[in-house]
DNA sequence: AACGATATCGGGAACGTTCCCATCTAGGGC
DNA sequence: GCCCTAGATGGGAACGTTCCCGATATCGTT
């Protein structure tokens, strides 16, 4: 009964020809009606074809469509690791943005090894992606121009290189907001867990810190500024040197939430209290930090906006436009007025 | 100069025919030599072809290859969300396992909405995946049999349904280990943040808890067992009722690290100390918890092994085999002997 | 030296779709 | 009533690869 329709080849797969045969039209017509890029036709033929396709359980063979169309409607993103919540948020946002625009997002990780970005890009490129979003840019490695040379469309996200197309947060502003918040609370000796020097977003936040201090007429003791990795361990290490200072800074701005968590842990283990002994501000507002026993003051980054911006630049084929998204300070319990 | 090789069509893309022309062999020969599934031939023709391919910058068009081969060598995974570190770890492990076996992994998220799993599966299926790994199984939704009916190969991960192919952790053992650890430390009144009832892994850990208590001859007061979500908020909520009990339990086993973090936060905010007032054990050993100011005692789950197991079952085409991976207790600072 | 077995190679068809182009139909204006 | 145009439709080629199969070359055996 249900089979008398499927008396074309017994191949298993329902193709556009099966739909065409059952609906009594040509494959061209079916193809046109089912083309999601065209405006949705609404005549009786179209309705019949769509209904037949649904009944037969037709699903387009993407490989065949991609081959013919010469495009895969798939975009790749390269991140250091997805277990970093920031990167998971960015990718989830990007995947949602892609879905809204009829694209599909795939992801590859570099496990934080700088050289692995080439392997990751190759693996995505082999999958036939139409373009790449990189969240791994390092100031000491000009991978972007390699991609340019190879003619691969790409956009940088979160971290820029100063000339490639990029969708970034305003890190200078964010660093300024965080630092200014601490200054407003009366702090004068404000230390900085500065992040790695190879990442432009860390550098931007550092710059914002210096700008805020300078505007307030506050000198910055170089020993207050501790470089670090982006990780929890990085924050834990960096804060050790800060705690040894005499006089000890009364506040710390950490380049991201991970380093803030690491710092928090060491500070509390040293018997000091946050915020009464030391105020602390993080960056990114990952979901975790609002749930800590002392909820972290931090700077919220609009990852949805950054991801959507990256996608737009990619689809527009831009090679040099910069999109800058504005961050917001989220005051919570780890920052308090100096001397209570 | 470099162009006199590329005097075939000026199409832009270098195809197998270009390689064949330059190397002076047929496209069939090139195809065979470049076929990664065949044992690597090592005669002079093969070497020449490979060299020419590299020089010309040939990369196989996956769409064309997939179309002809009838397989995409791509596998899909569906997880609730990647911002849950457990899921990010699972997916990263799965992607690595796929790379080892010459496959590629793509991922879709359901944002924890049970009905979204169908949309996620469709989106992956539309991308032509050869099979699916589901980490979203609910005991109250028989999505697995829908997939069976549609003839789509799939394997469950982390959470099983009792009959489908699945790669799981031994949650009963893990729950037993965690509870037994607390019993060994002298605790008798041990509360449980039980997780959601729709997740088989939570149920397994609950079962392990009851088994350990029963084996030790300890009664379980039903009020000690608080159902919860898997989230930080879930843990925070659940622990509130536990803290109100009189007598108050001296230890808590939380169904996962997130709920443990939520519980920890509430406990500390209530002015109680961990572990001197209350011992706490989590589950999963996400990277974060070893870096908390009081590092969390937890149960480590071998995600690499679970992901690799899921892939193997998928490739083997199993429809009912179960793989069970063994967890390990990781004692840290949140659990201590009763009365110090 | 002749033969069969074995490995290597090339031509052509096929995978399922999209797109170009030619054909047909309907409808409006004069 | 006729012609012109716009729109809908169908046939066939093309996308780049793999795979079947027949042809040719290579080798060992008697």
Features:
homodimer; elongated; disordered N terminus; 6-stranded parallel sheet; 41% helix; DNA-binding; alpha/beta; 340 residues; 4-stranded parallel sheet
How would you characterize the overall build of this protein?
The structure is a homodimer of 340-residue chains. In chain A, helix 8 runs parallel beside helix 9 (200-215). The model of chain A is unreliable at 1-11 (pLDDT under 50). Chain A is α/β, with parallel strands linked by helices and 340 residues long. Chain A is built from 12 helices and 12 strands. Chains A and B meet through helix 4, helix 5, strand 2, helix 6 and helix 10 of A and helix 4, helix 5, strand 2, helix 6 and helix 10 of B. The structure holds a DNA duplex (30 and 30 nucleotides).
Please provide a brief summary of the model.
The first copy, chain A, has 340 residues and is an alpha/beta fold.
Layout of secondary structure:
Two copies of one chain form a homodimer.
Chain A: H1 16-23, H2 27-34, H3 44-56, H4 62-69, E1 74-79, H5 85-100, E2 104-109, H6 116-126, E3 131-134, H7 143-150, E4 154-157, E5 166-169, H8 171-184, E6 190-195, H9 200-215, E7 225-227, H10 232-243, E8 251-254, H11 257-269, E9 279-281, E10 298-300, H12 303-316, E11 322-325, E12 328-330
Helix pairs in contact in A: 1-2, 1-3, 5-12, 8-9, 10-11
The structure holds a DNA duplex (30 and 30 nucleotides).
């Amino acid at each position: 009964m249900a089979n008398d329709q499927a008396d074309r080849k017994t191949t298993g797969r329902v193709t556009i020809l099966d739909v065409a045969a059952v609906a009594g039209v040509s494959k061209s017509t079916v193809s046109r009606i089912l083309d999601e890029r065209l405006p949705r036709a609404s005549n009786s033929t179209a309705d019949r074809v769509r209904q037949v396709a649904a009944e037969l359980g037709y699903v387009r063979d993407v490989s065949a469509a991609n081959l013919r169309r010469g495009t895969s409607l798939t975009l790749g993103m390269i991140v250091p690791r997805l277990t970093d919540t920031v990167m998971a948020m960015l990718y989830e946002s990007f995947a949602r943005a892609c879905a809204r625009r009829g694209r599909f997002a795939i992801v590859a990780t570099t496990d934080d090894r700088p050289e692995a970005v080439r392997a990751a890009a190759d693996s995505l490129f082999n999958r036939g992606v139409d373009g790449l979003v990189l969240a791994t840019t390092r100031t000491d490695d000009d991978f972007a121009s390699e991609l340019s040379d190879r003619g691969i469309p790409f956009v940088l996200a979160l971290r820029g290189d100063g000339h490639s197309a990029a969708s970034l947060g305003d890190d200078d502003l964010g660093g300024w907001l965080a630092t200014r918040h601490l200054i407003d609370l009366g702090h004068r000796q404000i230390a900085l867990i500065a992040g790695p020097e190879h990442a432009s977003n860390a550098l931007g936040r550092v710059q914002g810190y210096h700008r805020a201090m300078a505007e307030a007429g506050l000198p910055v003791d170089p020993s207050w500024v501790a470089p670090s990795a982006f990780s929890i361990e990085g924050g834990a290490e960096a804060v050790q040197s800060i705690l040894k200072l005499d006089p000890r800074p009364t506040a710390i701005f950490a380049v991201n939430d991970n380093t803030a968590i690491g710092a928090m842990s060491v500070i509390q283990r040293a018997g000091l209290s946050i915020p009464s002994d030391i105020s602390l501000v993080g960056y990114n507002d990952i979901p975790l930090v609002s749930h800590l026993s002392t909820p972290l003051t931090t700077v919220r980054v609009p990852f949805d906006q950054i991801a959507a911006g990256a996608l737009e630049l990619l689809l527009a084929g831009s090679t040099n436009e910069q999109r800058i998204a504005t961050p917001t300070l989220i005051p919570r319990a780890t920052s308090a007025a100096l001397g209570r």
